[in-house]
Design goal:
- This protein is α/β, with parallel strands linked by helices and about 220 residues long.
- The protein has one domain: Spore Coat Polysaccharide Biosynthesis Protein SpsA, Chain A, CATH 3.90.550.
- Helix 1 links the parallel strand 1 and strand 2.
- Helix 7 runs parallel beside helix 8.
- The longest helix is centred in the middle third of the chain and has 18 residues.
């Protein structure tokens, strides 16, 4: 599967990213690391790895992912975490399901049968349930874990969405815009591992407010 690029946004992940890259050595994926030039510790920690570093001019989780997608040259992309919480063993099943079902994007979910999380908290669980429910009711999204960005998609289709959310609103922007453009979305069970080091980058209340505000905007926006 040399036609997949793993897009890995990294911010202060010097403790975990080398372990993630060591685990990925056995796989044939192209790897793009998106980070800011000021993150010298993370840059130094991966200097001996065969990866492509893309320097982020601006700031923000969404901005890093958009930059990575726009730079991607393979047919497919996969958003992959730098903290060790995503399991690369699941990529093959996601890729196969994407193609067997002729989908444009497939979203991993921690909330189906034989799935789960070692890193979710009660607060993030409740918040995710609320936003996923909003997505199902108001946008008819057939995904059960809207804030979990373990995603494989067709690169050219993603570029057609003209994604622009630089913060964590990116999580809902991609599936909602894809649905509005009548692209095919799917969902597959996943198990989120405990992160290797560091803390969640999400601020539950601040980012939750930004996500809710953006979902309201998208609801009233013309397709």
């Amino acid at each position: 599967m040399h036609n997949i690029t793993l897009i890995i946004p990294a911010k202060n992940e010097s403790e975990s990213l080398p372990s993630v890259l060591n685990e990925l050595k056995q796989y044939p994926y192209k790897i793009d690391i998106i980070l800011h030039s000021t993150d010298s510790e993370t840059i130094q920690s991966i200097k001996n790895y065969d990866v492509n570093i893309i320097y982020q001019k601006n700031f923000g989780y969404g901005d890093a992912l958009i930059h990575g997608i726009n730079q991607c040259k393979t047919e497919y992309f996969c958003i992959f975490n730098a903290d060790g919480s995503f399991n690369p063993l699941e990529i093959d099943g996601m890729y196969k399901s994407l193609n067997d079902k002729e989908l444009d994007f497939i979203f991993a979910s921690r909330y189906g049968a034989n799935s789960g999380s070692d890193d979710d908290t009660l607060l993030t669980l409740i918040g995710n349930y609320i936003f996923t429910y909003i997505g199902k009711i108001f946008f008819r999204l057939n995904i059960s874990d809207i804030l979990y960005t373990f995603i494989i998609g067709k690169t050219e289709q993603a570029k057609k969405l003209h994604l622009d959310q630089k913060n964590f609103s990116f999580c809902v922007e991609l599936p909602i815009k894809a649905k509005k453009m009548k692209m095919e979305l799917g969902c597959i069970n996943s198990y989120e591992r405990k992160r290797i080091a560091g803390k969640k980058k999400v601020n539950a209340f601040r980012d939750g407010f930004l996500i809710l505000r953006y979902m309201i905007k998208l609801f009233f926006m013309k397709s």
